[in-house]
Amino acid sequence: MGRYRYFPIVMAFFVASLLISNVAAAKVLRLFGGLTITGGVLVFPLSYIFGDVLTEVYGYRRSRVVIWTGFAALALMIGIFMLVGALPGEPQWVEQGGQAAWDRILGQTPRIALGSLVAYWAGEFLNSYVLARMKVKTEGRWMGLRFVASTLVGEGVDSLIFVLVAFGGVLPGDLIRSIILSNYTAKVLIEVLLLPVTYRVVAFLKQAEQEDYYDRDTDFNPFRLELPAGE
Fold this sequence. Notes:
Strand order of the largest sheet: 1-2
Largest sheet: 2 strands, antiparallel
Low-confidence stretches: none
């Protein structure tokens, strides 16, 4: 990875969008047409876009390292928030509503934390896997179709796992189905709308890095953290 000038920058934006989306999810938005989504839905698709860029330009093996880095960063953030929330607050700060505000915005229940981690891990790896395999099968053609197809799979699994783990048995079934469908639709729509930007970023990186990786002989085991020879 050392020979790639822009790889660390894309990786940093990937992890940043992942962490920001999990904090922004604390606010529930009411948008046009009565669509109800969390604030994180507006940001989280960026992590999939950056994931697409990483896999398309640098390949699955390098993306795998980035996905695990994001997982570790997300786990650390959730762990720190839960620890700080559990520690006793200064009495005057608590009386003024500080603890209640913290719990409402940054508080993470174990189920929501687990749902976030498992959904992210499964969704991102499926997104990267589908994109990498489709690139080889299509010989690099139909990039837009590949981006959308991988997003449909990855975001679908992510939305399904998160809502079921976080809210299954707590919220009514109709509401759970509504949340899954609205979040999934919004995430996919955002990525589709940003396709022109993604095209430009990919084209720039391929030219600047002199790289357009094809995972023809890649071991897609998500737990095998190895890089191409010479790196």
